[in-house]
Amino acid sequence: MRIILTTAIALVAGFAGAAAWDYAGLGPDRTREALLANPEILPEAMQELQRRDMVARIEPLRDELEAPFPGAVLGNPDGEITLVEFTDYACGYCRMSLDHVNQVIADNPDLRVVIREYPILSAGSADAARMALAAAEQGRYEEFHSAMFAAENLSAENIELAARQSGVDVERAQAAIDAGLYDSQLQNNVFLAQNMGVSGTPAWVVGDQVLSGAVGTDTLNAAVAEARDS
To answer: Which of 35, 41, 166, 179 has a 20 to 30 Å separation from 186 between CA atoms?
Structure first.
């Protein structure tokens, strides 16, 4: 905690233009007096510190993060703003968020939503994720994505039914799955999630923000607007 506080104090001091202060701690009188006189600066500095940390996580991987698996995109595939969603078909909050995503897409014609399959909840999650990538490869991703979330559970029968309802060539898809063609993509999604600090679903990356949980339409729209303005 002392290290974090010291760093925050240094950041505050930097904002104030007092580079000559002793940043070792709360000892120096001028540092202490300034913080007591302006205590609201410290939370602001901590927020800025957290923002910079998040940018440092996102920026080196942004191109890879925002490059979708071919076809695994919702909204405008050529949109200037990209929202990345980490999702799991066994996740009730992800199911809840489907309507939120659809509304945000309707509100933002320039939005591209890159879906990253992140099947961490069950073996069925992984089976559904692989079929989703097969559907994406066949140009049927959006249809399968919706159908799979509408299914009661992730049984093999329901996964196949969702695929057939979506117009997926199931035999072709299963052959690709059996050949392990999508395993590297799922492994890469795990790598990206870990580097973003994502441990659950749904999770979102847009602009310089990482959001966790079913945050709702308003929060997603606000994050998209901030990314557009940055």
So the answer is: 166
